[in-house]
Amino acid sequence: MRAPRSSHGRLGETGASTARCGLSNAALLAPSPHNTQPWAFRVEGDVIEVLADTERNLGPLDPYWREMTIGLGCAVEGLVTAAAGEGYTAEGGLFPDTQRREVVARVRVRQNRQPRGVERYRQIAERHTHRGPYEAERTVPKDAVRRLSSVVDQLADVRLILLRADSQAARLFAEGTVDATKSIVADAELMAAARKWERHPLTEVKAQRDGISVINAGLPEEWTRALLTSPWLPDILMAEGWVRATRDVHCATAGFFGALAVRPPVGRQHLLEAGRLWQRLHLEAASMGMAMQPLNQLMEMADRDRALGRPSRAAASLARISGGGDWRIVFGFRGGYAAEPAPPSPRRGVRTVTVSG
C-alpha cells in the first residue's frame, strides 16, 4: 500500500508519536480553498486536535468563513480516513471545546483493529485538484455516478446534487459560474484577495508552499512557462485568463457538475460535514480515475452580495439549482476524466503545522 509521504516521514513508521504525526500528515494533504491550508494540529499522546488557523482565510472572498470551514472539514476527514486505513479506531467529536473555538475536532486514536477503507486511504497522496481540461466527449458511466452518490452515507443534513453536463441545471450552473467569475474580476477588493494567494515565480512557490501555484493553475503552457520566471501578472491579464479558463476549460469540458447543500440555518458543523463529504467524494473519484475541481464562484458572489446587503443574481441562481425548498448550496464542483494527470499542489510540512502545548 502506498502511504502519504512528506519530508518528515510516512504513516506506519515505528513509534506512537511518529505514527500520530503521520496521521496529521495525511490530514494536511486535504484540499482547501485557494490552497490556503487553514489548519494546524496538536498531538498529545493518543489525541490529535485539528485547529483552525483563522489568519489563513480569503478575506472578502469568504466573509463568513464558509470555504475555510469546509476546508477544515476536509482535513478532519483526511485524518479519520488515514486512521482507518492504518488500523486505528478514531473516536471524538467536532467543536468539542466551547472555551477554545479554534479547536475544530478532537480525535483519539488507538491501533486495535484491521485496516478499513484502504482504497480510499491509498488515494490521499494521489488526489489532486485538477484545473486543466477534461475529456468533454467522455461520458461518466452510471455506476460511477452511483458510487459517488453512495458516499453520502446517512448524512441527514448534507445533500449531494449531481448534474449531467447536458442538463438544464448544469447549464444554469455553468452560466452562473462564468457570470460570477466576471463579477469577481470586476471587483478590485475581491481580486486583491485572490491575488494574495497567487504563487509565482518558482522561487515563491518553493518558499511559501501554499496558494495556487502557476504549476497547477491549469493555465495555457505558454503562460505557465512565462510565469515561472515572472514576478507578477498584470491584473487585466489575470482577469482575462480566469474568465477564459472558467468559460472555455472548466465549464466547457466538465463531464458533470455537482454541489453540496445543507439545511439552513447554515452552521459551522454543517460546513465541516460538507467538507468531510467533499474529501470523501474526491478520494472516491480518484479511485475511479476521475478528476475533480471546486467551482465556488457562485457561492463567493452570493456571500459578497449578502455582506454588502445588495440583491444577488448568484444567490438566485443557486436557489434555482437546488430546486428551492429547505436546502442551501454551500459548495460547487466539476468532475470528469482528464487526459493528463494534475501536478500536486505545494504543501507546508507537517512540522510547520504541528503546535505544542
Written description of the protein model:
This protein is an alpha+beta fold and 357 residues long. It is built from 12 helices and 13 strands. Strands 5-6-4-3-13 form a 5-stranded mixed sheet, with helices on one face. It has a 4-stranded antiparallel sheet with strand order 7-10-12-11, sandwiched between helices. A two-stranded antiparallel ribbon has the order 1-2. Residues 1-15 have low confidence and may be disordered.
Quick take:
This protein is an alpha+beta fold. It has twelve helices and 13 strands. Strand 3 (39-44) and strand 4 form a beta hairpin.
Give the helices and strands, then pairings.
Elements lengths: L4 E2 L2 E2 L5 H13 L10 E6 L2 E6 L13 H20 L2 E7 L8 E9 L6 H5 L19 H9 L7 E7 L3 H18 L2 H8 L2 E2 L2 H7 L3 E2 L7 H7 L7 H17 L4 E7 L5 H20 L3 E4 L2 H12 L4 H10 L5 E9 L17 E2 L2
Parallel strand pairs: 3-13, 8-9
Antiparallel strand pairs: 1-2, 3-4, 4-6, 5-6, 7-10, 10-12, 11-12
Helix pairs in contact: 1-2, 2-10, 5-9, 5-11, 5-12, 11-12
Descriptive tags:
357 residues; alpha+beta; four-stranded antiparallel sheet; 41% helix; globular
